[in-house]
């Protein structure tokens, strides 16, 4: 068990492509850190640098306080689940799991005990004598997992370990990994695409974009105080709505009318002509079901409800609107980069399940202005969050001060907000 | 195979087709075997099966008059083919490993050259080789045959092996290193077991090519010092010079087929395709 520290880690591949750029990250002993980001953003590269399979172009990698840049993988004593499992096809499941133990020269009895312990945990007992080729995807994934947990490593590294499982098994394995990690208390770095995994598993989540670290924060902070447009759009499903607005002395002109932000959410808008207002689907509500006690914290506006999706516990309404061409292009770019569901110029609004707004009508919606993020379309920065940050540190500076800017929306001050002390 | 989906009629058609192909392919072999058991007087009888089954021809080549000719040829064939196979597999393994793993200038050139050599007609280089070998003293020696055999076996070995090596999931080497293996351990415990079937397949192919060669064997040898079996068959005579040697030739042909059959049966289980299945997803 050990802490892992990444200092200014950069990776440039042989063809000149910079896959990881100046990443700083402190992973505490026993902590569970999630790496998320769109495909090709450098998550696997980062993981492979930690484990020692990829040379580090510049920067320092410290494990347990010791610099390991030049150490071979075997001397780092980390265990890893590869994105494509990498099972040994000529060995049985038993021998696959036993492989690290045999290399470490454990006695047969000890090997047997540990393999059975792992196989029992992963429900692989009846497959121990089979070859990987004859297993299902989920079973292979569990074998890879077994091989990783069977020995006492300093840390676990998982590269999308659940990506090939069906929804039910994924849920089970997610719970299993979480339990396992808590029980063993082993430092874990976990790469995933999956929103739910990212939000539920980790102590902290690190968001990567094109090799650059955008924000490292607890799942709650990430959700309530994203530092920039990218993180805001990446975390959450359905994604955050971005509404263009023009600024004129304190008032915001939006496609839905003139809005005035409450004191707590009003950053300094001097020098900004156009901003994007970020509002999560659940910040909206059917105005007829909003209790009077909170109604005053928001605005009510008329919206043309195009489509309604009723899910039982809630319903989603789709509200198309007109936006200036350049904003629309920028949103389309972001959408492409995030690989997300359509974020066209339409609002996705989550309504109470009891709301009876009919499709294809104009309805009165209410938006909680206390939960709005003001984003700068030019730099992508979240002005609401950055307001407390002194100018100068940019998006990658983590979530420091996040708790100070957001009042109602961030009830807990972030325990992890000490990310990236400036060097 | 999913037999269940094939209807009965389809299945019987497949059976008939199979039997026809096998009969067509094996008829000459059956005929050779039959001839090898005939007496010289029986050869002209125009009957498929011998009237009386005799071991005379086998005795002749293994213990009788043709013994010297045949046994020395057998020794030459076995020795030369094994050596040529060994050398070509070792060289091809290195070459294919480099081609599959490394990016170096000239990689394509090597592959294209190998292909070009493989399609070059043997007969057109035999005559120059004959002259050259006589001048430098390689004529009628083992190396004199091994070297041209390498030109036949190396290209195909390099091609099959590099194709085989390319489909080995090399991440496994890295996985092994993460699991605590040294580079050498990762190679020996993971890569070697995966590569072995490919190497065996290639070795058997090479051996057959060398074993079956006739053109080089007949042109580049003149005595028992190096003449391999396919060439030696032409020099067989009967018990007296008036006796048709066909029986002895047939017996020799049967004898030289046996090692090939044995080899295939022996290594059949080694030539497993798709052994790398299941290592990675998808
Ligand atoms: N060996 C390599 N040589 C050159 N570029 C590479 C190499 N491996 C990866 N890259 C590039 O580095 C970037 C990051 O790759 P990486 O595999 O780390 O992405 P990822 O975040 O793991 O994506 P995914 O979620 O699809 O697995 C990609 O743009 C990729 O093209
Ligand atoms: Mg990856």
From TrEMBL, chain A:
User: Where is the ABC transporter domain positioned along the sequence?
Assistant: 4-235
Q: Indicate the segments annotated as coiled coil, or none if absent.
A: none
Which Gene3D superfamilies does the UniProt record give?
2.40.50.100, Nucleic acid-binding proteins (2.40.50.140), P-loop containing nucleotide triphosphate hydrolases (3.40.50.300)
Q: Report the InterPro entries cross-referenced here.
A: AAA+_ATPase, ABC_transporter-like_ATP-bd, ABC_transporter-like_CS, ABC_transpr_MalK-like, ABC_transpr_MalK/UgpC-like, Mo/tungstate-bd_C_term_dom, NA-bd_OB-fold, OB_MalK-like
Give an example GO molecular function. Answer: ATP hydrolysis activity
- Keywords from the named record: ATP-binding, Cell membrane, Membrane, Nucleotide-binding, Translocase, Transport
What do the Gene Ontology cellular component annotations say? ATP-binding cassette (ABC) transporter complex, substrate-binding subunit-containing
What the entry lists under SUPFAM superfamilies is as follows:
MOP-like, P-loop containing nucleoside triphosphate hydrolases
Quick one: signal sequence residues?
A: none
Q: Which GO terms describe its biological process?
A: carbohydrate transport
Q: Where is this region: Disordered?
A: 388-423
Tell me which SMART domains the record gives.
AAA
Q: Which domain of life is it from?
A: Bacteria
Protein name as catalogued: Carbohydrate ABC transporter ATP-binding protein (CUT1 family)
- Source organism of this protein record: Haloactinopolyspora alba
From TrEMBL, chain B:
Q: Does the keyword Membrane apply?
A: yes
Q: How does the protein's chain sit in the membrane according to the entry?
A: Multi-pass membrane protein
* GO biological process terms on file: transmembrane transport
Q: Which domain of life is it from?
A: Bacteria
| GO CC term, one of those recorded | plasma membrane
Give UniProt keywords alphabetically: Cell membrane, Membrane, Transmembrane, Transmembrane helix, Transport
Localization, UniProt: Cell membrane
User: Which residue ranges run through the membrane?
Assistant: 12-33, 78-97, 109-133, 145-165, 190-211, 246-267
Domain ABC transmembrane type-1, residue spans: 74-267
Keyword Transport in annotation? yes
- Entries under Pfam families matching the protein: BPD_transp_1
The record's annotation in CDD domains points to:
TM_PBP2 (cd06261)
Please state which protein family the record places this protein in. Answer: Belongs to the binding-protein-dependent transport system permease family.
Q: What is this protein called?
A: Carbohydrate ABC transporter membrane protein 2 (CUT1 family)
Look up and give the organism this protein is from. Answer: Haloactinopolyspora alba
